[in-house]
Design goal:
Length: about 475
């Protein structure tokens, strides 16, 4: 996808969107998390990491800090809500122990181009614990000291001080992602998430004074009591704050899956028609403000590294959404975190007590894994090309995977016929191109190439595309 297409006004056909707005994966990985069913031994991990060393790819590190002071009712993340700050230090010590175990098999000369702390609320931990964790990370891995790495952290803007952010900047963080969700007080009360416009405005000024390189903000549409007018007010305020990146997430109400969502009344949620109108107006406002629509729910300024990655075709999808540096191997630490090497994913246990026991006994806390087959790697590439670049070059796929793409995907290409007829894509002997009218439905296009969706399971529930 070119920068010109990314900045072009989106084609909005309500009837078409409703027809294709099915539930489906977000494709932060392929295969997706429900397919993580394998197990790995310590010898398997040692072998995989040695293979990773041989490939000499740079590293991306992710650390999951699950703790939160308060419960946000909409949240579907893996978290532990507690005000007992004493729980943090044993966990941080466990994460450091996990790093030490895994680093035994890693070539420490490999540079860490990306680093991210997610949660939960990473700023739940004290500044002393932040220092302890970052110093250990530097001890076991080769962090960049020239501020060229993309080192980011997720924060709750209503619960963090300027001094804490300065401390994080001094530790080497240069990027911040904050969850705004909505500035409307009635919405905030309904979801138990509070951060005022004054809080965020003051924090953004502090972050810019502290020379953070990138500020990202997350909003959620589809929350209780939202409507097009009120959400547009929030978005106007956000645009005035001028974040470098912005994500506009679709709230998926799944109270059977996420207990906290049972605190939200179905009757208070906007109708599907109103929800669609909210998203429509939001995309208009953001594009009018000069943001590029990267795909799905991500927007960025043209000069942001995501916009540059789009231009030089290094844009990728990973477990944090759209990202840069697709050449990195991802090593993840902490409860529930997922690592991704060339042809394998492995995920840590989601049970906090089990995690602590594993690392205290000197074992990696891996619970399940997914070894990618040749077919998985091919389809991952195809889905990534569609979702990040809006196109497929059949000749390039032929050469990369030594196949005849049109023969290999005969059934899938036939299944795309209705999308061709509806103008979502253009299909030829040379490749596939997502048209402007298909950009909002890129997840639906990717689903055609998902082999696992051809074996539907009643146990797997996905969010709607829009």
């Amino acid at each position: 996808m070119s920068l010109s297409l990314a900045s072009s006004p989106l084609v909005w056909d309500t009837d078409l969107l409703k027809r294709y707005d099915l539930a489906g994966p977000r494709y932060t990985s392929y295969p997706t998390a429900p397919q993580f069913k394998g197990s790995l031994t310590s010898d398997d991990i040692k072998r995989l990491l040695q293979q990773s060393n041989a490939a000499a790819r740079p590293l991306s590190l992710y650390t999951h800090i699950p703790f939160c002071d308060t419960l946000c009712y909409y949240c579907g993340c893996h978290k532990t809500v507690t005000r007992l700050k004493s729980r943090a230090l044993p966990y941080i010590q466990g994460v450091i122990r996990e790093m030490e175990i895994q680093s035994r098999y890693i070539d420490r000369s490999r540079p860490v181009k990306q680093l991210h702390w997610g949660g939960g609320t990473p700023t739940y931990i004290s500044t002393e614990e932040m220092t302890l964790l970052m110093q250990a990370t530097r001890q076991y891995f080769q962090l960049l000291d020239n501020d060229e790495g993309e080192y980011g952290i997720e924060i709750h803007p209503g619960q963090v001080s300027a001094s804490t952010m300065q401390h994080l900047r001094n530790l080497g963080f240069n990027r911040v992602s904050m969850g705004i969700q909505d500035f409307d007080l009635k919405v905030q009360q309904a979801v138990n998430r509070f951060n005022s416009l004054q809080d965020v405005t003051r924090l953004v000024a502090d972050l810019r004074r502290q020379q953070f390189q990138s500020i990202a903000m997350d909003l959620i549409y589809g929350l209780p009591f939202q409507n097009t007018r009120s959400f547009s007010e929030t978005l106007h305020r956000v645009i005035e704050l001028s974040p470098d990146r912005l994500s506009l997430f679709n709230y998926a109400h799944l109270p059977d899956k996420f207990k906290s969502q049972r605190m939200i009344r179905q009757a208070d949620l906007p109708s599907s028609q109103e929800k669609l109108a909210i998203f429509h107006r939001s995309t208009e406002l953001l594009q009018e403000a000069g943001y590029l629509y990267l795909g799905m729910d991500h927007f960025a300024k043209p000069g942001d590294s995501l916009g540059k990655a789009l231009e030089d075709r290094s844009l990728q999808r990973n477990f944090q959404g759209y990202s840069t540096h697709g050449e990195c191997d991802l090593l993840a630490f902490g409860v529930s975190s997922i690592s991704a090497l060339h042809d394998v994913y492995f995920q840590n246990t989601k049970d906090l007590a089990a995690y602590q026991q594993h690392v205290n006994e000197g074992h990696l806390p891996i619970e399940k894994s997914c070894q990618l087959t040749d077919d998985d790697q091919l389809r991952r590439y195809v889905i990534n090309q569609i979702i990040c670049h809006g196109e497929l070059d059949f000749a390039a796929i032929d050469q990369r995977f030594d196949i005849n793409t049109m023969l290999y995907f005969t059934n899938e290409l036939f299944a795309l016929t209705p999308m061709v007829d509806d103008g979502l894509i253009t299909l030829s002997s040379r490749g596939l191109q997502v048209n402007n009218s298909g950009r909002l439905l890129v997840r639906r296009i990717c689903m055609v190439f998902d082999r696992y969706l051809q074996q539907p399971s009643t146990e797997i529930r996905y969010s709607k595309i829009i």
